[in-house]
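#onboarding

Welcome to the new folks! Below is a worked example of what a typical request in this channel looks like: someone posts a single protein sequence, and someone else replies with the predicted structure as tokens. Don't worry about understanding the tokens yet, we'll cover that in week two.

Example request:
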Amino acid sequence: MVKNTDEKIIDETIKFIRDNDYQQLSLRKISKKAGLTTGAFYKHFKNKDELFYKTSVKLSEQIFEEIDVNQEEAASEQLLQIAKKFCQLFQTKTKIMNFLFFNPSLIKIYQESSKEFPFLKISQNLAYQINTGPLDNEQFFNQIWAFI
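Example response:
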């Protein structure tokens, strides 16, 4: 039951973000849409940051499914394909992409770990493959990611 309620809250959050700026999201609005009181919300998530984190994991999995990269291509070509898809997604799913890429509560999480964010992990691995310069892998990836 808890898992279903967690999923319902996350799904309502995604619906809200698709139609509105994520900055306008309030726990009261999401709780109401999920059929909960704000107090009941806190039985499922510690705070808004935790909700945003779990929502971002689900959204990143959905985005990853949309990124169709030809894995037989060179790593540099695959990175270009990812960048092109991100450009398309920023045009078609602007609010979702803004949530994923410009949400201050998520940026720190991305810097600490990529394991739960498949599009970040694959980009990181591809960048490591093409790094032949003087920068270490992390520095090189950070420059590539800033470009993407």
